[in-house]
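Margin note: ligand = adenosine-5'-triphosphate.
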Amino acid sequence: MLEAREITVRYGRQVALDRVSFVVEPGGVTGLGGPSGCGKSTLARVLSLMLRPAAGSVTVDGRPVRRWRQRAARELRTRIALIYQQPRLAVDPRLTVAEIIAEPLAAAGRPGGDRTGELAAEVGLTRDLLTRRPHEVSDGQLQRACVARALSLEPGYLICDEMTTMLDASTQAHLVAVVNAYRDRTGAGVLAITHDDALMGRWADRVIKFDQLIR
Ligand SMILES: Nc1ncnc2c1ncn2[C@@H]1O[C@H](COP(=O)(O)OP(=O)(O)OP(=O)(O)O)[C@@H](O)[C@H]1O
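Resulting structure:
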């Protein structure tokens, strides 16, 4: 279980999260909805250990998180993968698509090679795209690479923050199917943040509206 307890986040004087508690269960898809600006992405960043809250605690399978971002313990950090809405903001524009997919494997000292090809195939990227750089592929193709990168270290939790909002219907359906297949195979827990109620209805087996989290 990925659990956030009594999380408070402030940006300057603005309180973005006020003692919010939230759980992502393994093996299921937890949907999180709510109006723009209510704090969903902030919660996603806390749950993926990218943002240190001002107060509150996060535990990953019962293990407390004591450090955040690059300083978080590697085995905790790699248990959780975050997929953002805008792939162009989430990649290094100098890398090739293959290098983007293999980044976490390289950081873990594991050669990408065959695994990169397998991951690319899983998300529907053809081989000819692997040597291109981000400006030479579409948003949908780049988001496919980001999903492959997120799956590369087999995380226990996947946080999808408006993962398909920018994409056409067929790419959206494919990436949701990829995430679901990964969950079925590994028992990972998924957090699906989306404004799209129809998608939420199809995808999530438990839906939480942000206002339910506010005291
Ligand atoms: N880096 C930042 N600095 C200052 N304020 C921020 C920062 N990031 C977010 N905020 C503010 O914190 C609040 C919560 O933002 P957040 O992005 O978490 O909301 P959200 O629910 O994900 O919104 P959306 O659905 O539009 O993506 C908003 O009022 C936002 O303006």
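The longest strand covers residues 14-24.
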